[in-house]
Amino acid sequence: MTTKVEGEFKPLRDGILVRNMDFSGHKTPGGIIVLSDDGKVGGIHPRWGEVIAVGKEQHDVSVGQYVMVAHGRWSRGFELNGETVRTVDPKDVLGIQDEEPEAIHKSTLGHATRAYEGKVSVGKLEVS
User: Fold this and answer.
1) Fewer CB in a 10 Å sphere around the end CB: N or C, the chain?
2) Domain that holds residue 74
3) Rounded to an integer, what distance in angstroms lies between the CA atom of residue 10 and that of residue 52?
């Protein structure tokens, strides 16, 4: 059951309220639909949200900006005037952008690869 709120909503203190977080899935070349938040490598990533309200003590983020939020660090969401919105703790904001992000997320299939100080980590194997 989704909480429904009508009217104006103002986050407390330095809180942030966002909309338009993308939770859509993707289709593999074989036709399998993988949910975006599947708990595996392809679903674990930060997400962008459009700021629609901020608390009185919030000085870093303004309404109309876009924030990148660390994976899973948003509320379950509730319906505000017919639209799904989520609250975000400002400590979990990784970045701020004035323009709408072009590529919100490009999912990856298989294992994640990460470069770190001249090494590439794939699982527990490090290759220099």
Assistant:
1) N
2) 4-127
3) 10
What's the CA gap between 99 and 63, in Å, rounded?
A: 12
CATH of the domain at 8: 2.30.33.40
What are the φ/ψ torsions at residue 127 (nearest 5 degrees)?
-120, 125
Asked if 94 contacts 70 with a C-beta cutoff of 8 angstroms, the reply is yes
Backbone angles phi, psi at 15, to 5 degrees: -65, 165
What's the distance, CA 111 to chain centroid? 20
Read off the tokens for 37. 């938040």
| DSSP assignment string, 9-74 | ---STT-EEEE------EE-TTS-EE-TTSSSGGG-S-EEEEEEEE-TT--S--TT-EEEE-TT-B
pTM tops 0.90: no
Question: Within a 10 A sphere around the Cβ of 53, how many other Cβ atoms?
Answer: 18
Number of structural domains in the chain: 1
Higher confidence at residue 115 or residue 100? 100
| pLDDT, position 27 | 67
